[in-house]
Write a structure and sequence with these properties.
Layout: E1 2-8, H1 14-28, E2 35-41, H2 53-61, H3 76-81, E3 84-87, H4 90-100, E4 108-110, H5 119-122, H6 125-143
Helix pairs in contact: 1-6
Length: about 140
């Protein structure tokens, strides 16, 4: 089983979007039994909150449910557990090092070769979704 953790700042927009988009791509490939996919935050600001309503609504329109997802913070134990830790931007690449110390197993990387802009600030949830879909599609092709 290949275990992936997607990480962003608050775990209410980008990383849960990536979690559920990847789960959908894996489902479409009929490979659900081969993956464990989750998401987390580097901060504590949104702990316990559900997926942010505009992102949740966009995903629902695409037929992707985020039911039962609540923000949580990444832990050092997550680093040990997951095979890949996929970040949305350089800012959180720096923040994650406060949690894990250092990436000795080379598990941490960015989803894209550019930052996935944070729709919390840009209000462009469609752009974030499209970037995440692009990155998750490429990631799944790389893994398979």
């Amino acid at each position: 089983m290949y275990k992936i953790l997607f990480v962003c700042h608050g775990n209410i927009c980008r990383s849960p979007c990536a979690e559920f988009v990847m789960k959908e791509l894996v489902r479409q490939a009929n490979r659900q039994d081969e993956f464990e996919i989750a998401s987390a935050a580097t901060s504590t600001e949104e702990l316990g909150n559900p997926v942010y309503p505009p992102m949740r609504e966009l995903l629902n329109k695409k037929g992707i449910s985020t039911a039962g997802k609540y923000a949580r913070q990444m832990t050092k134990a997550d680093y040990d557990y997951y095979d890949s830790i996929i970040l949305m931007d350089h800012y959180n690449l720096r923040n994650i090092m406060y949690i894990i110390g250092e990436d000795t197993d080379h598990k941490v990387r960015l989803l894209l070769d550019r930052d996935v802009s944070d729709p919390w600030y840009t209000r462009d949830f469609t752009k974030a979704y499209n970037d995440i879909l692009e990155g998750c599609t490429a990631l799944l092709e790389e893994i398979l």
